[in-house]
Design a protein that fits this description.
Elements (H helix, E strand, L loop, with lengths): L1 E6 L3 H4 L4 H13 L11 E6 L3 E5 L7 H9 L10 H11 L10 E7 L8 H9 L2 E8 L5 H10 L6 E4 L5 H12 L16 E8 L11 H13 L9 E8 L3 E5 L7 H9 L10 H13 L8 E7 L9 H9 L2 E5 L1
Helix pairs in contact: 2-7, 4-5, 8-9, 10-11
Pfam family, one: VWA
Organism: Nematostella vectensis (Starlet sea anemone)
InterPro entries: ECM_Assembly_Org, VWF_A, vWFA_dom_sf
Length: 332
């Protein structure tokens, strides 16, 4: 079940004349990869500006020709960007309950910032099992816009940005991503209860995305999956994180957060810095930031380094210093 939530606000055409038509073409191109009928893929479209309007629901059309024709007849409404209201509408009228054996997907196309926050309705959709993809329309995005796109999406890898002038590669990515089976979000059956000081050292260099455009988002998801395995508290596992490229960026200390929820939120909001790969410098920083002073009695010290390339500075000395400080170093 693929639902499209389409921005019809006045700013769409301000960003580029003909953008509303290009958005509709993007939807039609995306649907070319799917077999549209009731027992296969079903499609629904909601248009919104000041208020949401259901163009057609999942059960309305059972042929691609009729779906395309209905999209072609859509008219540009103009108005404000009341996305929060539209998300609640979609949850209530499109995704009323989980469909056994069917993947439920919502693709949100928007060019601006919603007048009210979108986090609460987005979380409601995620919890209902709806996989949300967010597509930002425009050439440049302010920090708040990027943050809102990330809040909308079910994961960082489901955030897309486009000027709509060239959407061929975006369409292919979107088709592939929608068609992938929903990944189970099972919690680990057993949590690690050991007293551990766990330092995470994450590569944010420019080459990360050269190996795959969405790789940094996948890296962050991997870190979150890793953390979910441990029982977080002062008595059990304490987690800290450093992001590095040309220089090191401290995200949070080992004793800064004692709840898994707070740690996950902090990891989720990490921004990609790009730059060089100064792993040696980052290892020295990690030694001071995570493991200064005497090793606490009865606590294991662990550093997990995630990197994609060869360091631009030497790692041998800093790695030896970490081992001398009693840290067990894992490299991925």
């Amino acid at each position: 079940d693929i639902g499209f939530l389409v921005d019809g606000s006045a700013s769409i055409e301000k960003r580029g004349k003909g953008n509303f038509g290009r958005m509709l073409n993007l939807i039609k191109s995306t649907l070319n990869a799917f077999s549209l009928r009731q027992r296969r893929t079903r499609v629904s479209v909601v248009l919104y500006s000041n208020r949401p309007f259901k163009v057609f629901g999942f059960n309305r059309y059972s042929s691609k020709l009729r779906v395309i024709r209905a999209i072609n007849y859509m008219r540009y409404p103009r108005g404000g960007t009341k996305l929060r209201r539209a998300l609640y509408y979609v949850k209530r009228y499109l995704f009323t309950r989980r469909q056994r054996g069917r993947k439920q997907v919502l693709v949100v196309l928007t060019d601006g910032i919603s007048r009210r926050g979108v986090k609460a309705p987005a979380i409601s959709l995620h919890r209902a099992g709806v996989e949300v993809h967010s597509i930002g329309i425009g050439r440049t995005f302010r920090r708040r816009q990027s943050q809102q796109l990330r809040q909308l999406a079910s994961s960082a890898s489901l955030v897309y940005k486009t000027s709509l002038k060239s959407v061929r590669s975006l369409v292919k990515r979107l088709q592939r991503s929608i068609c992938l089976p929903t990944r189970p979000t099972k919690k680990p059956t057993r949590l690690c209860n050991r007293p551990i000081d766990l330092g995470l050292l994450v590569d944010g260099s420019g080459s990360i995305v050269l190996h795959g455009k969405d790789n940094f988002g996948r890296l962050i998801e991997f870190v979150q999956s890793l953390v979910s395995f441990f029982r977080i508290s002062r008595r059990h596992t304490r987690v800290g994180m450093i992001l590095y490229s040309t220089r090191s960026y401290p995200i949070f200390r080992l004793n800064q957060y004692t709840s898994k929820r707070a740690i996950m939120g902090k990891i989720r909001n990490v921004r990609y810095p790009a730059g060089g790969t100064r792993t040696g410098q980052a290892l020295r920083y990690a030694r001071r930031y995570f493991f200064s002073g005497r090793k606490p009695k009865g606590r294991k010290r662990v550093l997990i380094l995630l990197t994609d390339g060869i360091s631009q500075d030497s790692v041998k000395g800093p790695a030896l210093q970490l081992r001398n400080a009693g840290a067990e170093v894992f490299t991925i």
